[in-house]
């Protein structure tokens, strides 16, 4: 799903009050981290990922990996990313129905 500017702005406004769901530490981007990102996005649709200061992982690397997995990177600020994807289960589609109406 390609997002328009208004849709991205709406998602960014929702993400302001969110706490990071996935934290990337000094182990970097492991398969476990990628699996947790996948499961969190599938159940919540919109998540915030934070790269901790002791990690050598770069934000651009995480954003590229997320885009390769089919997620939409809505915003990157410093060491934080906001990621969106429409949930595969209909019962988890709350935000995506609002985004489609915009």
Can you tell me about this structure?
- This protein has helices at residues 5-15, 31-44, 59-68, 95-101; strands at residues 22-24, 46-51, 72-77, 80-84.
- By secondary structure, it is an alpha+beta fold.
- The longest helix is centred in the middle third of the chain and has 14 residues, at 31-44.
- It has a four-stranded mixed sheet with strand order 1-2-4-3, sandwiched between helices.
- It has one domain: YhbY-like (Translation Initiation Factor IF3).
- The chain has four helices and four strands.
CATH superfamily: YhbY-like
CATH architecture: 2-Layer Sandwich
Give the count of structural domains.
1
Residues in helix, %:
40-55%
Q: Which fold name fills CATH's third level, the topology?
A: Translation Initiation Factor IF3
Poorly predicted runs of 5 or more residues: none
The strand order across the widest sheet is 1-2-4-3
Briefly say what this structure is:
The protein has 102 residues and is an alpha+beta fold. 41% of the residues lie in helices and 20% in strands.
Compile the SSE list and pairings.
Layout: H1 5-15, E1 22-24, H2 31-44, E2 46-51, H3 59-68, E3 72-77, E4 80-84, H4 95-101
Parallel strand pairs: 1-2
Antiparallel strand pairs: 2-4, 3-4
């Amino acid at each position: 799903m390609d997002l328009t500017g208004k849709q991205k702005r709406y998602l960014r406004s929702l993400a302001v009050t969110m706490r990071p769901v996935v934290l990337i530490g000094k182990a970097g981007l492991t398969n476990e981290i990628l699996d947790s990102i996948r499961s969190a996005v599938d159940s919540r649709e919109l998540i915030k990922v934070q790269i901790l200061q002791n990690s050598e992982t770069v934000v651009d690397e995480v954003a590229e990996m997320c885009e390769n997995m089919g997620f939409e990177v809505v915003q990157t600020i410093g060491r934080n990313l906001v990621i969106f994807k429409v949930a595969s289960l209909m019962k988890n589609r709350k935000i995506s129905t609002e985004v489609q109406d915009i």
